[in-house]
């Protein structure tokens, strides 16, 4: 879901309220980050790999178009 889709579904006021609550929340503790790292790291690695592959494809397309 894109940012625009969320905004359309939730509305400007709701999104603004969510942003205020997130901004007011304390930062996570090092212990929480360490606990979540094994769960979130594989997802982040997958996203970074997908982005790198997309960049490689874009570069390959660009070099063929010249």
Architecture overview:
The protein starts with a helix and ends with a helix. Helix 1 packs across helix 2 (12-24). Helices cover 85% and strands 0% of the residues. The protein is flat and about 50 Å long. The longest helix is centred in the last third of the chain and has 35 residues, at 30-64. It is mainly alpha-helical and 66 residues long. The chain has helices at 3-10, 12-24, 30-64.
Head-to-tail CA distance between termini: 34 Å
Q: Beta-strand percentage?
A: under 5%
Nearest-integer average pLDDT: 92
Radius of gyration: 18 Å
Parts with pLDDT < 50 across at least 5 consecutive residues: none
Largest sheet: none
- Class inferred from helices and paired strands: mainly alpha
| General shape | flat
Topology as a string of helices (H) and strands (E): HHH
Number of strands: 0
Helical run tally: 3
> Which percent range fits the helix content?
over 70%
Name the descriptors:
66 residues, mainly alpha, 3 helices
Write the layout of secondary structure elements.
Blueprint lengths: L2 H8 L1 H13 L5 H35 L2
Provide a short characterization of the protein structure.
The chain is an all-alpha fold. The protein is 85% helix and 0% strand. It is flat.
